Amino acid sequence: MKDSLxxxxxxxxxxxxxxxxxRDLPFGKVxxxxxxxxDFEDGEWKNFEILPYGPISMSPAISALHYGxxxxxxxxxxxxxxxxxxxxxADKNFARLNKSAVRMAMATIPEDVFMQGIAALINIDKAWVxxxxxxxxxxxxVMFATDPVLGVRPSSSYKFVILANPSAPYYSNPLRxxxxxxxxxxxxxxxxAAKTAGNYSRAMLPTVEAQAQGFDQLIWTDAKENKYxxxxxxxxxxxxxxxxxxxxxxxxxxxxxxxRDTIILLAKSMGITVEERRVAISEVLEAIExxxxxxxxxxGTAATVTQISEISYEGKNHxxxxxxxxxxxxAIAKKLNDIRYGVTADExxxxxxx
Length: 354
Ligand SMILES: *Cc1c(COP(=O)(O)O)cnc(C)c1O
Hints:
It is built from seven helices and 17 strands. It has helices at residues 63-67, 90-103, 111-124, 197-212, 258-269, 281-289, 328-340, and strands at 8-9, 34-41, 44-52, 70-72, 75-79, 85-88, 136-145, 158-167, 175-179, 217-219, 236-241, 244-248, 274-277, 293-300, 304-313, 316-319, 351-353. The strands form two sheets. Strands 1, 2, 3, 4, 5, 6, 7, 8 and 17 form a nine-stranded mixed beta sheet that branches. Strands 9, 10, 11, 12, 13, 14, 15 and 16 form an eight-stranded mixed beta sheet that branches. The chain is globular and about 60 Å long. InterPro entries: Aminotrans_IV, Aminotransferase-like, B_amino_transII, BCAT-like_C, BCAT-like_N, BCAT_family. Belongs to the class-IV pyridoxal-phosphate-dependent aminotransferase family.
């Protein structure tokens, strides 16, 4: 990709690659040598730079810290069989970042800043993109308000940063989840559809409490009646009932997941019926009891597909069909991985070779 931004590059003196143990890559802890940064000032994006990954000096008054104007994205890059690097559906993440920016009254980002920032970072840290099976490079764009002003109003300056982490395959035991009926993640008129910092901080106490009760995760319900399934921690939810994929429709309280969209398109192409609609807790529990619910799983960039083995509701635990017996979601997940790793034809045009 041509660099029309004239990105200024400062190379890291010494690469940390040699001393990095790729067999020990806890999520989000190991960063590549560099990062991409840009500033929004005086109404325009400027100061495009690749810098050594490290601290950025800033005023403790920046409004992101006080009032939460902060948004992020998460996507992955994969080494292809010919050694090139592909980023999966980056256009969707770009569009969603700007959707989040609009909702949080922040500056939006031009497509060339987002895309060329990613390309420049991957190019300089190409040696960090793992080529081992099922590994990837996780990309974390983040934008936050930098006005050093305590007044409550939209900031006039922002910083955009892209970080990258080499990531190991994500293995997870099937999840035991609790349907949350007290705390909520988002509400009508709120910011649930934005990937914004406050949605994750407000979820921390409820999640820690659920974990103390022995669950891995929560299923959030609607804030109005606590009757409908919304989504999980940082993943959307899908159920297979009577052979059809049933998933909560995207609405202002639910994040529009790229993996969710991808799985729906793949499922349809494989002849599976998909229903995007409100999903009542009662429907899910009845389908578990009468055996028509054969699979339940969470979908997101980190894990692709994570099976759910047990769902607890108001103190009663419901055990689902044995994850080992499930065939539909593993088949879709395999097709998705084959596309991401360039093993099978990219018939939807999802791979962007950087
Ligand atoms: C990021 C996220 C998802 C999953 O989105 P992907 O684009 O598939 O990674 C789902 N729900 C929430 C709340 C999220 O933050």
